[in-house]
């Protein structure tokens, strides 16, 4: 199994060109081995993340999370985030580097409003049935906790937009 230094977590719907630029800069200019999942890019189905990808996260030293407006619009991104925050808790030396992208800002209240109060999050909740939310309420709350935990580090902000 290949060993990676960095796991790059991003929503390909609204941050793919930024993530590709970041991937290129890290891998070719800095010589860092970055995990890039070609199969996921452009995929319509973001319901479940494969176990093999979750294992890659656990084997990395660093996770870079690009928080964009549509990041919380998929269960798979939330599963990634949950795994990343778990690794941060249980793995010595594991580092999380949040990047706030395309209008998502980390200031008290605004970040939560941008992600949880935005259209993308409401669209996501509408896609998940109320029965699924009720059955998985602990999982849902762990995703909210993972987002909160991952953003405690100040992170970097980018005013760039995809497009």
From TrEMBL:
Residues 2-132 form the TIR domain. Transmembrane segments: none annotated. SMART domains: TIR. Keywords: NAD. The keyword NAD applies. One of its GO terms (biological process) is signal transduction. Pfam families: TIR (PF01582). PANTHER family: TIR DOMAIN-CONTAINING PROTEIN-RELATED, TMV RESISTANCE PROTEIN N-LIKE. This is NBS-containing resistance-like protein. The lineage of its organism: Eukaryota, Viridiplantae, Streptophyta, Embryophyta, Tracheophyta.
């Amino acid at each position: 199994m290949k060993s990676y230094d960095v796991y790059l977590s991003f929503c390909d719907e609204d941050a793919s060109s930024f993530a590709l630029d970041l991937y290129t800069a890290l891998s070719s200019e800095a010589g860092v081995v970055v995990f890039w999942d070609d199969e996921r890019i452009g995929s319509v189905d973001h319901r479940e993340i494969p176990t093999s990808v979750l294992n890659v996260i656990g084997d990395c030293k660093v996770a870079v999370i690009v928080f964009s407006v549509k990041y919380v619009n998929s269960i798979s991104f939330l599963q990634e985030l949950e795994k990343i925050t778990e690794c941060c808790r249980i793995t010595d030396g594991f580092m999380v580097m949040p990047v706030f992208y395309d209008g998502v800002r980390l200031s008290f209240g605004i970040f939560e409003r941008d992600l949880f109060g935005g259209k993308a999050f409401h669209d996501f909740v509408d896609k998940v049935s109320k029965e699924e939310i009720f059955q998985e309420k602990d999982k849902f709350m762990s995703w909210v906790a993972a987002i909160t935990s991952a953003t405690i580090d100040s992170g970097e902000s980018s005013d760039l937009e995809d497009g």
